[in-house]
């Protein structure tokens, strides 16, 4: 594929969970790249992106590169681990090997690939970087709920859920539809905000959308006080 001395780093979106929602181009890139890089769980087990693509990858024919992405805000730990990730990719790229980094959803929407690509550009600007779009969990949720996200002049917001109550309230007030991603840790807070706006019955929650593990709650109020999987989102439609 790449005739230059340095390999190309591809960010390959593999969709929200259902392996059949991978694009033809993503499939081709995974087949053609010598190295398939993927997020790796520190304590073993397969990552979500790895599970999605395992039907399409023969590990005996590919160089499989598991990368650990730290779940911390400690700047020292983050810098150390991210540098390790770039070094691991660069080792292959410097040998002229193309690397397909697979990520669930889309590589340019709240993806680990964003920071990987940014750091690679800083440390090794000679490396070509290409993104292969993927189907987002946001679109998967719309399909699962049979709920149009926006029509005509309607506005839709994709918002990371946080404990900033006023910011969450403004997001709901300023959009016709809001998709709250990473909602698990602040679910009850969001439900309180919705109840305060008399919109408590307009929210649904989906975990691991389109995957074999998908769970759907059309009435998000049923989940008050419960713990959810990290890969959970909420759709609020007025």
Describe this structure in words.
The protein is α/β, with parallel strands linked by helices and about 240 residues long. Helices cover about 30% and strands about 20% of the residues. The chain has helices spanning about 25-30, 50-55, 75-95, 110-125, 135-145, 165-175, 185-195, and strands at about 10-15, 35-40, 65, 100-105, 130, 155-160, 175-180, 205, 215, 230-235. The strands form two sheets. Strands 3-2-4-1-5 form a five-stranded parallel β-sheet, sandwiched between helices. Strands 6-7-10-8-9 form a five-stranded mixed β-sheet, with helices on both faces. Helix 2 (about 50-55) links the parallel strand 2 (about 35-40) and strand 3 (about 65). Helix 6 (about 165-175) crosses helix 7. The mean pLDDT is about 95.
């Amino acid at each position: 594929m790449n005739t230059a001395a340095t390999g190309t780093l591809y960010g390959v979106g593999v969709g929200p969970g259902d392996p059949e929602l991978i694009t033809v181009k993503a499939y081709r890139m995974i087949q053609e790249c010598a190295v398939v890089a993927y997020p790796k769980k520190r304590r073993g087990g397969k990552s979500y992106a790895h599970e999605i693509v395992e039907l399409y990858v023969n590990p005996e024919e590919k160089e499989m590169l598991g990368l650990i992405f730290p779940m911390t805000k400690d700047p020292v730990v983050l810098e150390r681990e991210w540098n390790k990730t770039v070094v691991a990719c660069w080792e292959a790229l410097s040998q002229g090997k193309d690397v397909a980094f697979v990520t669930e959803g889309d590589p340019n929407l709240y993806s680990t690939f964003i920071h990987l690509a940014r750091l690679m550009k800083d440390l090794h600007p000679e490396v070509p970087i290409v993104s292969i779009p993927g189907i987002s969990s946001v679109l998967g949720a719309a399909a699962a709920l049979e709920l149009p996200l926006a029509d005509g002049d309607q506005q839709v917001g994709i918002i990371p859920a946080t404990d900033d109550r006023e910011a969450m309230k403004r997001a709901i007030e300023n959009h016709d539809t809001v998709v709250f991603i990473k909602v698990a840790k602040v679910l009850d807070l969001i439900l309180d905000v919705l109840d305060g706006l008399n919109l408590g019955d307009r929210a649904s929650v989906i975990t691991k959308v389109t995957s074999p593990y998908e769970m759907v709650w059309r009435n998000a109020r049923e989940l008050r006080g419960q713990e959810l999987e990290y890969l959970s989102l909420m759709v609020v439609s007025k």
